[in-house]
Structure formats: C-alpha cells, structure tokens
Amino acid sequence: MSTGVCNLLSINLVKFIIRNEDGNFYFDYEGFKKAVTTGVRFSDNINDISNAPLESYKKSMTEKRRIGVGVLGLGSLHYILGIKYGSAESLDLVDSIFKCKAETELLASAKLGKEKGSFKLFDREKYFNTFWWKNLPISEDVKKEIEQIGCMRNSHRSANAPTGNMSIYAGVVSGGIEPVFMKEYVRWSIIPEQERAKLKERGFKFPEVHEGQWGETKHLKLIKKGTDDVLKGSFEDIEYEVDKNRGLVKATLVEDYGWKFVKENFSEEKIKEYEEKGVFVTTEELSVQEHIEPLKIISKYTDMNSSKTINIPKEYPYEKFEEVYMDAWKAGIKGITTYRAGTMTAVLEKKEEIQEKRNELEQTFDSANGDIIVDKMKLPEEYYSKGYIIRDNNSKKWYVNIAFANQACTKPFAFFVSTNNKESSEVADDTINDMIKLARGRGLKKDVIDRHVEKCQHQTNVTKIARTIGFSLRHNIKIVDVVNVLSDEKKYPFSSFTFHITRLLKQFIKDGTQVTGNKGKCKKCSGQLIYQEGCFMCADCGYSKCG
Fold this sequence. Notes:
This protein is an alpha+beta fold. It is built from 19 helices and 17 strands.
C-alpha cells in the first residue's frame, strides 16, 4: 500500500515587500530566499518529531522525508506591485518568483542532505537522470551545483495548498496562489462552543443543530439559500445563520491585505491609474485563460500539486469546458478545480432546473402586467443576484446583495445586507410606515402586510429597512413609487441607510420616467425633470442633478 504524509508549510509573499529610494515597492528576492531555506529545514525537522497513526505513514516520513513548501498571498502581492493577475507582466513575476523558489529549496535540500544524509530511497545516479530533473527549467548553474553536492534530503519539496483559514489568520491575504477573491467581503465563520455559551448567557436564542435541535427562534427566521433551509437573523447588530451542516455561523466583514495596503500607501491618482490598468480584478472578473496561465508556470517549478480553482462563466459552452482540462493536462498540470458561477449553493442541481426556476420567477412578474401582486409572495429558491458596496464618506459601509427577478438584473425584489453600522429606530420606523402605507394604498391584503411586520420585529433596523423595501418590490410596487416615497430628506438624512438604498434603487428606474411630486420641477426653468442614469435631468434645459 502506497502512503504519504502531508507536511505542508506556506510562506506569505506580502511579507517580502521593500520600498526603494524611488518610493516604489518591489519584491525582496533575497529575503524570500532566506525564508525558503529556513522553511525547508523547518519542514524537514517536522518529519523527525511527528508521530503517525500507522507504521506505513512513519515509514514514508523517514524513507522519503517528503515536505511541501508553498506560498500564500500571490493575489494580494499583485495589488501591491500594481500588476493585473494573469497579464503578461503577471506571468513574468510568477515565473521569477517560482523559479527562485524552486532553485532555493532544491539547493537547500541538497545541502541539508550533505549535512544530515539524503532520504533513504535516494539513488544519486537515477535521481539526476530522471525526465523531471533533465527538463526542470531552473538555472543550469544551480543544477550543476546540486549535482556536485550529490545529495538530497527530501524526495519532494514543494506544493501549494489552498490556505483558506491560514490566509485569514495571516492578515486576510489571498489564498495560496489564487487571485484576490474579493477586495472586501463578508466571511461566515463557525462559532465555537465557548462563544456559543456566552451568546446564550446574553440572551441569544438559537438551536444547537448537532444536538438535533432545529426551528425558528425570536432572533432567527427560516429562509431559502439556494435549495437549503437556513435560519437567518441578527443579535447585537451582528448577522448570524444556522444551517444543518455547520450549525451557528456569524458574518464578519473582512478586507484583503493587498487592497488595504494600496489604500494606506498609494495616492488617489495612483489608485485610479491602477484601476484603469485593471490591477484590482477579482476571481470572478478574470478570464479562464488568465486563471490557468499562472498555474502552467507554477506547475513547472512544483514537484507536487498546486491548489488552483479555475472560475468558469455561468453560460460556458461544454466544448470549451472540456478544453480547460485538456489544456491543463498538456501543460503538465497535475490537477485543477473548476467552479461554474452561481452554483455554490446548488452544486448538484441541474442547470436546466435552476434556469427553469428563474424563468418561473420572471414569468410571475411578467404575467402581473404591472399590477400589484396582492397575495403572499415568498422568496424563490433560485434568482439572479449582484453584490454592491455602499459607502457613506468611508465612515460607514453596507454590503448589499440584490436579488433580481429577471436575467437582465433590472428588476430588484429583495435585499440582503451585512454591516456593522447601526441605524436609528426613527429612520427604520419611518421607512416601514411609509412602505406599509404605500402597500395598503396599492391594495395589498392586510394579513400579508401583518405577517411581514411580525417577521421584522426582532431584526436589526438595517435588516428591517432592507426587508420592507424588498417586500414592496416583491409585490410588484413600482420602483419609482418606492423612490418617490423614500426621497424625503427631512425623514431620511444623507447618512442614513434608507437614503443610500433609495439612491441605489434610482439606478433601476427606466430612463425618461418623469419625476413626480415637489421634486418634479426644474429649479432653473421649471421644466419637467426625468430620471436619467439614476439622476434627475430636465427635459427642457438639460439641467442635471444626482441626489
């Protein structure tokens, strides 16, 4: 039986940034070499001090002394150096770093072999005449030096693990060799037993899934997330969820190290220059080729495997999907993972079934023909969605995920918000009252409205606002009517969540729609104002204002 033991170590690439006299940032190759050399020795020592559950594992550790030195933070490093992941400049950077890494770890293992002895199964003549060694694209001078030493402490030296949790602990750097997943995002983390006990002491009501408990509480209500039943709610202004696999999890707002570094060290002009260059792309914004090309280079220099996900667009043709795997195989890549957009919560559900559910939702609104949907309207299992970040002078942030009823993503019907910012009860109450008054005026049934109000009772003020606006849109009340009601600056000041979510909604009002009420007249010529790209524009004199 062939066995092996994972003995992996990852080096944080963002720790090797130096600023020269010209004020620009560079990668510190000399510092990196020292870290790789130390990493090889450190990992090798682990083989001597570790226990193993089976004798076959222990034998593998002592006879092969396999180690796996990898990296993390490659995507974050690209942000800091102003290089777009997957670009020609990126490929040069990746080649330079991983060639340096391969040469350093091989030389370190050879010297360690001379000092302590080679791994037991090492055969000098065979090792330096293998196809792998002959075709390894490192410096010939380094190869000659290693061959002259004639030893090798470790059978394998390099691997690149996904480093999910490690990346968070290391300061929220990008995982492994991946690009930046998102510049800013909400991460759901499992709540440990000790923290759960403290939450209970403070009055938080939630079921202990692993003890067989399940059901709504005053803090958590049942929703559909993809095809899964999930309990969702908030306590002390922190969003929580309970699912049947992980139990209680909480939302934490995190920011990529590279993005944070850029904002703290670069001028607005420099950041704008990088944005125009496409430096700050994220996982979903890269093409399939931009994902796979860096992996081709990294694989040449890595003796074991590298964890890399290739993101595939939602409507990617099957023939091209096959080509991704053939391309990887031809390049000598040992293995890849592909992820098709929009399938995270329904991995095993057929694409046709998901599309059918989305079509049903769109048809529901189309068949209403602009009329109000007076009966109960539940959140569907499948819908199109987009994420938005709302900032209020950078002092407040709201992470908003909008669910859309159509593929064009022009008809929002629900909002899911994560934030650490509180909203005043006055603003929340005014928003709910205004929306309920509008719903009643449009003919919504009393029991439908009452049920919604009851569901909102134990939510945070921000969640109440988001759910109530979504409730109105879900029953087919026109966006322009919602915006007109919530555009009262006396009730909803600039810094309020209601103000900002209303401003976001204006983007979805059809250009040319007339502005009604006291805001409908132009201040310059008294002409009729219309909505244009989310702003007000006078149809007569061309005066324009966003607000």
